Amino acid sequence: MYSSLLARLSPLGRRADGRLVLRSPFNGLDSTPRVPGLVATVCVLLGSTAYDGLSDNPRWITTLQTSPLGPVPTATLGLLTAVLLAAACYGLCAGALRLADRELTTPSPPSPTPCRPSPSAISLPTTSHS
Q: What is the pLDDT of residue 50?
């Protein structure tokens, strides 16, 4: 699921005929299927990225070096906290959105629309190795 999600964020895509196209980086997200664990995967992706960015902060490095738990348990707790904060932010935003629009409390079933390239997609030449 993780790899599929990252592939949908790619600026490269394929048309229905298999031709490689250059597209807007987030164009593939609208075809992401609703599957169990998707929200958790996104929260881990965002939380771990946030932790990675903050882990070079001098205050955090000092905390790791002076923690009575030791650096590894403290770093693990920091990573878990970052993921939980990402999940909490997601939950708060989803809840606020549902309060603002009551129609979102009963999601409609996904429609089986085929994936089509956007009008702004640019075809890329491909080579055949036959």
A: 93
How many separate helices (H) and strands (E) can be counted in the chain? Answer: 4, 3
| pLDDT for position 47 | 94
Lookup result for tokens 């609208």: 30
φ, ψ for residue 14 (rounded to 5)? -125, 140
Answer yes or no: are the C-beta atoms of 65 and 26 closer than 8 Å: no
CA atoms within 13 A on the CB side of 21: 22
Residue type for position 1 = M
**Beta strand pairing status for 122-123 and 12-14?**
unpaired
Q: Which residues lie below 8 Å from residue 44, measured CB to CB, with a gap of 6+?
A: 83, 86
CA 95 to chain centre: 19
Could you give the CA distance from residue 85 to residue 89 in angstroms, rounded to a whole number?
6
Angle between helices 71-100 and 38-54 (to 10 degrees): 130
pLDDT value of residue 115? 53
Higher local confidence (pLDDT), 47 or 114: 47
